[in-house]
Amino acid sequence: MSEAQNQAVPADAESPVLFASPAAASGPAHVEVPVAYDGILLAGFGGPEGQDDVIPFLRNVTRGRGIPDERLEEVAHHYRHFDGISPINAQNRALKAALEAELAARGIALPVYWGNRNWAPYLEEAVQDAAASGHANLLALATSAYSSFSSCRQYREDIARVLEATGLGGTVTIDKVRQFFDHPGFVQPFIDGVRDAVGGFLADGLPPEAVRVLFSTHSIPTADAERSGPRDRDFGPGGAYAAQHLAVAEVVMSAVAAEIPAAARVGWELVYQSRSGPPSQPWLEPDVNDVIAELPAAGVAAVAIVPLGFMSDHMEVLWDLDTEATDAAAEAGLRSVRTPTPGVDPVFVSGLVDLVEERLNGTRAGDRPHATDLGPWFDVCRPACCENVRAGFKPAAAGIAP
To answer: What would be the CATH architecture of the domain defined by 1-47+86-179+344-402?
Structure first.
């Protein structure tokens, strides 16, 4: 690629996509030409690694919302229960190492730079480190699979903010892999977990009707959910965010039933967790604990709790599911199993590198693997995708403005 072709697209350019590679700058839904990336940006959420980090971390998460420390302390007890340590940074270190090993095994010589939105190491450090090492054409891989403001656009806004703040917006390009909610590498670990949980219950003599599968994901404000995904398509209640989860859950249950025919009679539903907004603000429901409390009256004796919305076992899984939801199941007299997240499952890690290769090779959209009819999702987010109702649109990388 020539020097001219490597030039970033600055914020004041006419291109509809900020800070993009030349191949993505015009805003194609799928970039179907090879792009010579020279580094991968692993973009994480971040988490505290000690008691003294907890409140400063939560201030970062809620920046701009004016939430006093006393209210933040109400959430801090989740972290304090685990000595102020979120597992998410350790998991991202493990994921970075696994990605590096898989890339090396495939002969792909791309360094992986890891930076977080809300705690050290920050995205600023990662992007500056990449630029200082001569790597200016980056492909971002965010640690979130679904479409919504908090799980996609906020990462894109932070990437744009970092490029502006560091002064690297004229020299560094950052594209982003597609949302991978229905990539087989992400879906397969959930199939394995549900199969093992349901199979275990049935092997113990429980009838299928006495088993329930609850697919759990992070609740978000209903107004944000309705604006998730592109505006030119009706995804139904809950927008693309809910539709993507429902589609993946259906794939998981169908795959399990194909292996265990009796599992076709096991009921399932999508539930939500970790609500944090004021009672006056509608958020996606039903809550996982409310549903669990109602299961005995429906004749259910055992429940598989599936963290479908999560890549790894971070705090919302450890506290909201392993602690609160598991306690709720025990109080209801139910047997319960919480199934694994993808984490560093080799199938998942291989799938992430497949996503990188799609962009390196310019793979045609029709040749990209996807487990649901919603995919393959977009390489370049569409106009007005995943608006934050409270704050509106801010400049964002890897998507057509606004």
So the answer is: 3-Layer(aba) Sandwich (3.40)
